[in-house]
Write a sequence for this structure.
């Protein structure tokens, strides 16, 4: 038996097909993964993401610490609740994890990291936190629910306590807000992993089942990890472990935009390795990049399939699947940097043509690929 | 939906076989298999006229989760395929023992049917899976 979130019983009641995910018993779907995907694109769906780890970092030097620890620069976060997506790198520039950092107060930041990397992340962060006198507190007392889709915000606001709803109503994208009084442990952020508008709500685990039920009563349907994966793939968002890991850098993973090389006096972990790699890319034929692929036949691309680019070299599908919105197979692939507009993917012994595109494939319900 | 039907036969690889009045055999995949695979998104059907051996890979179903080979339960010739699956692969999820059929075979040896798993034997295979 795996770990259970505070919403485990809610999932069983809703007839979820439960699967193991990084040691957690999580819902894969509640009947139809495709229906759940469309529900999020067209209306509103909710995901139990309580298996992800919420880490609170406390100390007067916490900002300085995170400017060392993360490849993106939390120096950009000046307003309470502001969020930043970043990679956490090893000295070789390899990706230990990707995460979201929230600025709460000058001596309190929050990180949300992946479930599968929780233990190694904690060990890494704690090791480096010592020199900065930063205390790391794992918030196992919190649950997290993502509500996503064009109607997600309206329906969530109708469900929240009025004082928190009033604040949450005003936040912009990648901004969060904390509750007050009885709701100090509630945190509502306008973030997500689907390419739709919506909220991610952190709240006390004890309050989560009733919140989930209230969202359901407001017409938000439960969605599982299956739909979460196809939604993020369409949205052009990487999955740790599939699209990047400790053997590759953000520059080879389509995540160069998340690395803050400026200001140059900020020496984050992995910085010198990335600078060296960037320099080498200019005169190297071995450098790789991430691209999006659309298969021109009806089979389905999957993680691990080989990609070949005529006259250039080979690559690999890092995430692949069927796009319910485009009704064809889409993928991310790591390919030679010289790849242009076409390649072939090996599917069950056959080489099938794919078009190279720039993700996202879908954003706010609309196809982005002509 | 019935989990498995008495008048059908089954394979350990989760195909079902139904004997038609004209002696041909209709083949599909079981409710257990479609549930494991999840929503179907593409079915690569065999060509009509293809001669297949028993246990030969003859078709691929792709779901949101994975691609899965379908094996011919019997030796014979493919005499019909369910072309409705081209546009509506979800028929396999909605009605695996009916509208979600995959192909029809003219068996080389009609007696092979009796050598396949009956409902109880297939139920034991499924129980072992779980």
């Amino acid at each position: 038996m795996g770990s259970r979130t505070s919403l485990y019983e809610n999932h069983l009641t809703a007839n979820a097909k439960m699967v193991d995910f990084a040691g957690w018993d999580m819902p894969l779907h509640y009947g139809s993964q495709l229906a759940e995907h469309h529900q999020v694109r067209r209306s509103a769906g909710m995901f139990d993401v309580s298996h992800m780890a919420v880490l609170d970092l406390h100390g007067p030097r916490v900002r300085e610490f995170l400017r060392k620890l993360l490849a993106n620069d939390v120096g950009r976060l000046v307003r309470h609740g502001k969020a930043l997506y970043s990679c956490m790198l090893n000295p070789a520039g390899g990706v230990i994890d990707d995460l979201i950092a929230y600025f709460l107060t000058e001596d309190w930041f929050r990180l949300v990291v992946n479930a599968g990397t929780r233990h190694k992340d904690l060990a890494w962060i704690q090791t480096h936190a010592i020199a900065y006198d930063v205390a790391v507190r794992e918030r196992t007392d919190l649950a997290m629910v993502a509500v996503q889709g064009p109607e997600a915000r309206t329906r969530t606001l109708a469900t929240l306590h009025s004082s928190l709803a009033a604040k949450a109503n005003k936040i912009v994208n990648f901004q969060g807000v904390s509750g007050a009084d009885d709701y100090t442990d509630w945190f509502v952020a306008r973030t997500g992993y689907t390419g739709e508008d919506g909220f991610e709500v952190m709240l006390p685990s004890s309050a989560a089942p009733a919140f989930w039920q209230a969202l359901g009563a407001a017409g938000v349907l439960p969605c599982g990890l299956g739909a979460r994966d196809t939604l993020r793939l369409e949205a052009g968002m990487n999955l740790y472990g599939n699209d990047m890991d400790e053997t590759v850098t953000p520059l080879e993973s389509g995540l160069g935009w998340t690395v803050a090389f400026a200001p140059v006096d900020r020496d984050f972990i992995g910085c010198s390795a990335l600078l060296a790699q960037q320099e080498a890319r200019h005169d190297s034929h071995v450098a790789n990049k991430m691209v999006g692929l659309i298969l021109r036949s009806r089979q389905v691309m999957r993680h691990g399939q080989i990609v070949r680019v005529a006259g250039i070299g080979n690559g690999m599908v890092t995430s692949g699947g069927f796009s319910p919105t485009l009704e064809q197979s889409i993928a991310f692939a790591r390919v030679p940097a010289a790849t242009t507009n076409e390649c072939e993917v090996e599917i069950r012994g056959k080489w099938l043509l794919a078009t190279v595109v720039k993700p996202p494939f879908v954003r706010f319900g609309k196809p982005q690929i002509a | 939906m019935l989990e498995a039907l008495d008048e059908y036969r089954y394979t350990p690889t989760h195909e079902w076989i139904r004997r038609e009045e004209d002696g041909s055999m209709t083949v599909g995949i079981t409710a257990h298999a479609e549930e494991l695979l999840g929503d179907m998104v593409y079915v690569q059907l065999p060509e009509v006229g293809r001669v297949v051996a028993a246990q030969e890979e003859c078709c691929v179903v792709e779901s949101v989760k994975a691609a899965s080979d379908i094996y011919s339960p019997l030796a014979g010739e493919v005499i019909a395929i369910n072309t409705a699956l081209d546009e509506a692969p979800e028929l396999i999820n909605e009605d695996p023992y009916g509208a979600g059929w995959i192909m029809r075979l003219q068996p080389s040896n009609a007696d092979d049917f009796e050598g396949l798993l009956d409902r109880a034997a297939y139920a034991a295979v499924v129980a072992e899976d779980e």
